[in-house]
Design a protein that fits this description.
InterPro entries: AraC_XylS_family_regulators, DUF6597, Homeodomain-like_sf, HTH_AraC. This is Helix-turn-helix transcriptional regulator. It comes from Halomonas colorata. This protein has 268 residues and is of the alpha+beta class. The chain has helices at residues 10-13, 95-100, 124-134, 139-157, 163-173, 178-185, 189-200, 204-222, 227-233, 239-250, 254-267, and strands at residues 15-18, 28-34, 44-48, 54-60, 65-70, 76-80, 86-91, 112-113. It is built from eleven helices and eight strands. The strands form two sheets. The chain has a six-stranded antiparallel sheet with strand order 1-2-7-4-5-8. The protein has a two-stranded antiparallel ribbon with strand order 3-6. The protein is globular, with a radius of gyration of 19 Å.
């Protein structure tokens, strides 16, 4: 799926990201952090667009840490408070299922707190000592500690490259029809939909929609193509179909999105 892209105000929020160890990259997009800066910078609200990935996030409050897991199946509006220290692991499609045994659909579109009841994941006990150490180090060192914990999970789980994950990636490339991909990888439609729902959390149609929207957003900000041409290049019937789908996905029109993003680029 698409690379994790930091928002335009990343510098204001003191956001940093770390690419994972190559051995983790089949399952992990990146690790990122936001270091607390007091109350000088006001909170910022950002749109988090879905790409079939999911996030394990640790918030370091003064009293006690909060560990949450979220799978954003739809576009979310999230407020980032610069006074808060936050570290997060962004998983690729099926990554959290492979490394943590979590089924994304159970955590859709809200940050679910982990460990607050008897139904806590078995790996949480191994994460807690790492979380305690996060208070004693800076965020760069903290991300390294989280990566080391993931590597220990990899050694325990030793997951192989999932056929489901590979298929999700191939669907997102939009290079071959779904029927041909299923035939090439030995899936029936029923098996594909069941495994995607369990391991990735979405249907094949969702994956196609995410990929089309990612491509459209890239073209809107990196080209001067008219909307009608972008619609055709991204697989939509016409400009009206594209505009309707884009507004439903991003909560703004393609023209408004292009204007807003180009304005941010030129101000940078």
């Amino acid at each position: 799926m698409a690379l994790f892209i930091l928002p335009s105000n990343a510098a204001c929020l003191n956001l940093q990201q770390r690419l994972p160890d190559p051995r983790l990259r089949p399952w992990v997009q990146c690790l990122w952090s936001m270091a607390g800066q007091g109350s000088v910078v006001p909170p910022r609200t950002e749109k988090l667009y879905p790409d079939a990935g999911s996030s394990l996030t640790i918030r370091l409050a003064s009293s006690q840490p909060t560990i949450t897991f979220c799978f954003n199946k739809s576009t979310l509006l999230e407020t980032f408070n610069p006074s808060e220290t936050r570290l997060s692991i962004r998983f690729k499609a099926a990554g959290a299922y492979a490394l943590l045994g979590l089924e994304p659909q159970q955590f859709s579109d809200i940050h679910h707190s982990l460990g607050i009841d008897d139904d806590k994941p078995p790996w949480l006990d191994s994460l807690m000592p790492v979380v305690e150490r996060l208070y004693q180090v800076n965020t760069v060192e903290g991300l390294a500690l989280l990566e080391a914990w993931l590597m220990s999970r990899l050694e325990c789980q030793s997951p192989s490259n999932s056929r489901t994950q590979n298929l999700a990636y191939e669907i997102s490339r939009l290079q071959l029809p779904l029927q041909q991909l299923m035939a090439n990888m030995g899936f029936t439609r029923r098996t594909l939909e069941r495994k995607l729902k369990q391991e990735v959390g979405v249907s094949p149609g969702h994956l196609v929609g995410y990929a089309r929207m990612y491509n459209a957003r890239q073209l809107l900000t990196t080209s001067h193509l008219p909307l009608a041409e972008i619609a055709l290049q991204c697989g939509y019937f016409d400009q009206a179909h594209f505009s309707h789908a884009f507004h439903k996905f991003t909560y703004e029109t393609p023209a408004a999105y292009r204007k807003r993003k180009l304005s941010q680029i030129y101000k940078a």
